[in-house]
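During the reporting period the student researcher (J.K.) took over the structure-prediction task from the postdoctoral fellow and processed the backlog of single-chain submissions. One of the processed entries is reproduced below for the supervisory committee.
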Amino acid sequence: MERKSTGVNLALGDQCSRTAFHWAQKSFEARRGKTGRPLFGGSGSFSNWMDFGAMRVAMSCDGIGTKAEVAERTGIYHTVGYDLVAMVADDLVANGIEPINLVNVLDVDQPDEEVIDQLMRGLYDAALECGIAIVGGEIAELGLRTGGWGDGMHFNWCATAIGTPYMNGMPIDGSQIEVGDAVIALKSAGFRSNGFSLVRSILENTFGPDWHKARRGDGRSWGEVVLTPSKVYTPVILHLIRKQIPLLGVAHITGGGIPSKLGRVLKPSGLGARLDHLFPPHDFMQQLMKMGSVDFETAVRQWNMGNGMLLVVKPAAVDPILSNLAARGVAAQRAGEITPGSIVIQGVSFT
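J.K. obtained the following structure tokens:
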């Protein structure tokens, strides 16, 4: 679904990703029969496992995207570390990997020690929550090559995380999914780190260039609302694995939304899903859809729509999972089931 007014063309982005992966996959040949040989991890996975002899290691990389601009606008920097950890750690745990180490790259126009201290404090808090050690990083001073909002420090922020199979388990790769399996949704806290070009476009068209200062009925500014930090699901997924509750597939709902990310999990089986009981979109998402005249299909492909992670499990595992998640304060519910054909969300079919 293309929305030219935001400067984002999802179809073109997907095609560019396929092109990039084509060349990356060709490089696998360089490690054939050697340490570090990729074991799996194509377009159907969230990370790649590599063979290090007696050990398996996995890697994932990502960034917070243009959510950095919201931090610049609000002057709130200590929460985006949660977004950065969520993007890489939750991608790893989606394949059964315990995130262990992380390195980050912070591109700035010119450094501001106070801002960097807030950013790194938040990264530390999020990493500690997941048991991750931050083992390296880079602050690159790029001058005018790094733009942003306002007169303060402008920045882009990315990270790479590595880990190993949790409890020496097998990959969670979707290959064992069957028709009739259940889908469980874990509620999100907000937009996480995706779809912000559309968010910013709607808010600027509605409120003008200082949209981040506009107030909602709950007293919060729109800047504060869209900056809501990502909930990091890694600890609860590791808890479920530790409880020996089989997870057949885990979809981390980021760019491309549920159709893209659940579709990735279902690719090995070639199956679809019927999702009639997802968490409803947050009220602010619904308000943005109305303000921007955004149709349901576009919104579902841009945002998580209130659902930050989906789990595919056997029906008998639903109640134990919901009980375990409730005990840990995680809102979750049975959202649907696996079916033949395409992914159908509230009656709308996605291919």
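The committee noted the following: The first helix runs from residue 10 to 26.
J.K. will present the remaining backlog at the next meeting.
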